[in-house]
Amino acid sequence: MTASNSQRSPVVVITDIFGLTDDIIALANKHSAIVVDPYQGVRQSFTNEAQAYQTFIERCGHDAYTDIIWSVVDPLGRKAADKKGGKVTIVSFSAGASAAWRLTERSSERFSADNIEHLIGFYPSQIRHHLDVKPNCPVTLIFPCKENHFDVDKVIQSVSKSNAVQCIKTAWRHGFMNPLSDNFNKQAATVFGNVINKGIPMNPTIRHSEPRDYVAIKEIYQQPSCYAGTLQLPYPSEDKWQKRLSSSNDNAYSLVAELDGKIVGQISMEVLSSPRRKHVANIGMAVSENCQGQGVGSQLLEAIIDLAHNWLAVTRIELEVYTDNTAGKALYEKHGFVVEGTAKKYAFRDGQYVDAFLMARVL
Asked: How do 34-36 and 165-169 pair as beta strands?
C-alpha cells in the first residue's frame, strides 16, 4: 500500500525583492517546491538592495505581489479542499512574507486559509500595515532584532494576540537568510534553514511493513521518546520484532513510512475479533525522533484511517496516549479523535505510574 502522489502536500517558496537567486532555487529543489517571485521567473541582476527595492516597486509592488501569490496558492488550496491534494505549506521572505500574511484570512468560493498547512515568514516588515489580519492557519513569523522604520517588539506583541501565530525574534538583521543582502549571516542561515526543514512536511512512501523491516522498526522503538511514548520497553529485541512482523494474524496490520530508503515511522492496527466488536480497531504508532513534527505521523494516520474505514468496515478506531504527550494528543485530535476518558495509573514508566487519555475516532 503506497500513499498516492496526488496527496502530497505542496510547498510554495515566496521570494523577497531580489526574486530568483541561487539559494532560492536550491531551497525549492530540496523540497520540490513551487517558487513565486515578483518578476515572473525572470532572474534579475541587482547591484544593491536599494536598486532591488526600486525595481520591485516599479514592476510589481506589495498589492500586486499579494495577487500574484494568490493566483498560485488559490488553485493549490482548491485541490486540497476537493481532497485531490495536501494542504499548502508556504515559506516566504520579506515582501513575500508580508504578502503571504495577508492571504491567511483570504478566501474564495472553494478555498480558505484552512487549506494552508503552515506559513513560515522571515522578516515580514510590511505586516506593520496589516496588523488587523486574523490568520486562519498556523503561522510562524521570524523577526530581525530590529527594523529601522518601526518597533519590532510592538508588532510582535500585536500579532501574537492570535493563538495561530508563533513569533521568533532573532539576534540578526533584516535579510539574514539572503546571501545578496548586506545583513546576510551564515550562522543564522544555517540555524533557520533547519527551522524551514522542520516546518515543511516530509513526503514519505507509506507501505505495509515486511518481515525484513524488523531491524529498522526496532531501531525506531529503541529511541527514548518512542518507547517512553508507547508501551514498548527499552532495549527491544530484534527477534521479538521479527516474530511480530512475521505473524499470520489476519486482524493485525502494520504500515511504515519510508523516506529515501529508510523507515522513519511505523503504525500498527489490530481489528478486534469479538463478534460484537468487529467494527472496532486499536492503533499505536511511533515516528523516528529526527522526523517528528514534519508530517510523517499525519501521513501514517491518514493511511491507517483510510484502510480501516474504507476497506475493513471499521467504524471506531481507539487509541491511548499519555496525558503528558501534548504533541501526540494534538496530532490525534487533528485527525478526528476525541478524548473519551482518562485511565488513571494506566502504565508504569521510568519509575512511576502515568495516566493516559482514552481517545477514539467514530465514523
From this structure: unpaired
Domains of the chain by residue range = 5-199, 205-362
Is the domain defined by 205-362 classed in CATH 3.40.50.620?
no
- Which CA distances in Å does 261 have to 213, 244, 256? 11, 22, 11
Q: What is the phi/psi pair of residue 242, to 5°?
A: -65, -45
What does the pLDDT read at residue 81? 65
What CATH superfamily is the domain 5-199?
Answer: Alpha/Beta hydrolase fold, catalytic domain (3.40.50.1820)
191: CB partners within 8 A, 6+ apart: none
What pLDDT is recorded for position 5?
Answer: 36
Give dist(CA 228, CA 140) in Å, integer.
29
Q: What pLDDT, on the 0 to 100 scale, is given for residue 111? A: 56
* Gap between the Cα atoms of 178 and 46, Å rounded: 13
The pLDDT, as a whole number, for residue 1 is 35
According to DSSP, the β-strands at 316-322 and 280-287 are: parallel
C-alpha cell at 262: 529508510
Q: DSSP assignment, residue 51?
A: H
Measured from the Cβ of residue 303, the count of other Cβ atoms closer than 10 Å reads 22
Give the CB-side neighbour count of residue 284, counting CA atoms within 13 A.
13
Neighbours of 116 (CB within 10 A): 25
Distance CA 106, CA 129 (A): 16
Residue reference for cell 474564495: 108
DSSP for 226-258, written as a single string: HHHTSS--SS--HHHHHHHHT---TTEEEEEEE
- Model pTM greater than 0.85? no
Cell 502522489 belongs to 5
Regions of the chain with pLDDT less than 50: 1-6
